[in-house]
Amino acid sequence: xxxxxxxxxxxxxxxxxxxxxxxxxxxxxxxxxxxxxxxxxxxxxxxxxxxxxxxxxxxxxxxxxxxxxxxxxxxxxxxxxxxxxxxxxxxxxxxxxxxxxxxxxxxxxxxxxxxxxxxxxxxxxxxxxxxxxxxxxxxxxxxxxxxxxxxxxxxxxxxxxxxxxxxxxxxxxxxxxxxxxxxxxxxxxxxxxxxxxxxxxxxxxxxxxxxxxxxxxxxxxxxxxxxxxxxxxxxxxxxxxxxxxxxxxxxxxxxxxxxxxxxxxxxxxxxxxxxxxxxxxxxxxxxxxxxxxxxxxxxxxxxxxxxxxxxxxxxxxxxxxxxxxxxxxxxxxxxxxxxxxxxxxxxxxxxxxxxxxxxxxxxxxxxxxxxxxxxxxxxxxx
Length: 382
Hints:
The chain has 382 residues and is of the alpha+beta class. The protein has 18 helices and eight strands. Strand 4 (176-177) and strand 5 form a beta hairpin. Helix 8 runs parallel beside helix 9. The chain is globular and about 75 Å long. The termini are far apart. The mean pLDDT is 89.
């Protein structure tokens, strides 16, 4: 039985990093306190189990001191104007997984002679808001009136994602880490991120968020792609961010989803505010927070009234109990990794260019039958 020396500060750091309650870890590892006090040395197998339980790369536990982990792409997340806490293992692992997928797809696109996406990096922060939003809308083939006629938020979001995917953006939407339903992502930590690349631009949306919020996140991250900038953010409809790039992306997102000219025609100034919020939210398939912002943009609310209503609406939405959506497994799987990416991986695997083992890892499952059924669902001959 091999026993190893682990510094107590690394054990305590792994616990804090994981966000798992101490009682839960103590129940699973009864000798944890003895390890921390160095009364007992853990076995190598126990260290491996502890690393897995706390989502910690095992090599970190053998370092002389806890590492300082940073998000590997620009981090624009703020709370009350200040940068947020250390990133969780869930956020970091999600970004690492998406980086691996993006690298794979970039090589795949090169091998097939795909041309760079001209829209990546085509805008600047100095670019006009309405002109940029119109350019994104045209490239997407996004018809706001068509979205208005769609009955549900779910269908509107699915159409929006498919339009971005068809344009060449890998849009991945999931509420868990790599298909692991025990590792749910927290919308309060991040709502999405963009990873810019002229062959494989990638957007990840936190699927644990509300559908209306996901619509805004996708629009916000598309603005980042147009700038050619990678970033992780907690995009909100308000302009609370002190970062110029985030403010610009918020403005473009709002105009993309709810064009001010069309909104001006639909807004009923004399109607009760809450009635209008709900009506226009359903009409444009965006959150009530986005509608509040557009009302202010029209001059329908003073800053004081806007912030009062915004805080009240934010509190109401935070209290809403989110239920698991369920739905078709194969549609959900395709959405988690992007239809474009899934088709490419399945095709490459069938052609013998990619190992099934690597395909399963990137797609987030381990069964051959799932692979075959997903391929058939995406129109790839299996």
